[in-house]
Amino acid sequence: MKELIDTFLNYLSVERGLSNNTIIAYREDLNKYLDFMEKNHIEVLSKIAKDNITDFMLSQRDDGIAPNSVARRLAAIRMFHRFLARERILKTDPSTLIDSPKLWKRVPDTLTVNEVEALIVQPDARDRQGIRDRAILETLYATGMRVSEAVNLKKDNVNLDIGFLRCVGKGNKERIIPLGKKAIVSITRYFKASRPKFLKDKQSEFLFVSRFGKKISRQSFWKLIKKYAKLARIKKPIKPHTFRHSFATHLLERGADLRSVQEMLGHADISTTQIYTHINKDRLKSVHKQFHPRP
């Protein structure tokens, strides 16, 4: 059965253009799925029925797997069976009648505007590495890009004259995101004072480079965010998506419409963006409780 996983994942990579990270996650999910079936003495795909898939989902829940991960595994299973049916490897798709697990939408951790400001000013502006790091932080907050997108951002995809950048996101989908004035100033300074000195006589298509003139890794991005959060004495948990979550939350708090935020974040489904409206509701409840005479 597992040989068909390779065929399916190759289809996702070549024809659907899904990222390597997604392919790796789907491979893990499907291997766990088929391992479960084999343990339950189902060794042929055609013998898998709806109840077997439901049993697998329940076993995941009982094992303490997070609801989001359970939902992702079901998505992988559905795509796998749909592919097998379309390719006529299987006559039927047993996953079609299975409902998605109702997810408890966890409100993502965000920083306040003051915390973001405190974090962004931490890099030493007198140091070439500090100048680069300030540009990185300003770019992340100005655009809401994923860290993986910022790491792979090409120099030629940034237009400082008109204040926009072209971002290549999941599934190689492109989107245009505005740059704020402060981000433009920081990137301009980085271009002049740091980047040429890092590169020396080398060339790089990537916007952000290390002090050795190479593309910065995701791990380095993550480390510098944590470093400056510590310097800013921020006690909240800091994750790679913290700037992204804060970007979306602050826009919506100031009246931005959901569709525009969805487009800037690169969400395929607006329901993904709607998680940030829960943050606004929680904030409103907190304000109401604090200031209403009869809370």
TrEMBL record:
Compartments reported by the entry: Cytoplasm
Signal peptide bounds: none
Gene Ontology molecular function: DNA binding; tyrosine-based site-specific recombinase activity
The keyword Cell cycle is annotated on this UniProt entry: yes
Principal cellular location given in the protein's record: cytoplasm
Active site: residue positions: 146, 170, 241, 244, 267, 276 (o-(3'-phospho-dna)-tyrosine intermediate)
One Gene Ontology cellular component: cytoplasm
Transmembrane spans: none
Keywords recorded for this protein, A-Z: Cell cycle, Cell division, Chromosome partition, Cytoplasm, DNA integration, DNA recombination, DNA-binding
GO annotation (BP), single: chromosome segregation
Boundaries of every Tyr recombinase domain copy: 106-289
Domain Core-binding (CB), first and last residues per copy: 1-85
Gene3D superfamilies per UniProt: 1.10.150.130, Intergrase catalytic core
Quaternary assembly: Forms a cyclic heterotetrameric complex composed of two molecules of XerC and two molecules of XerD.
Function as written in the Swiss-Prot or TrEMBL entry: Site-specific tyrosine recombinase, which acts by catalyzing the cutting and rejoining of the recombining DNA molecules. The XerC-XerD complex is essential to convert dimers of the bacterial chromosome into monomers to permit their segregation at cell division. It also contributes to the segregational stability of plasmids.
Family: Belongs to the 'phage' integrase family. XerD subfamily.
Matching PANTHER family: PHAGE INTEGRASE-RELATED, TYROSINE RECOMBINASE XERC
The protein's name: Tyrosine recombinase XerD
Record organism: Candidatus Sherwoodlollariibacterium unditelluris
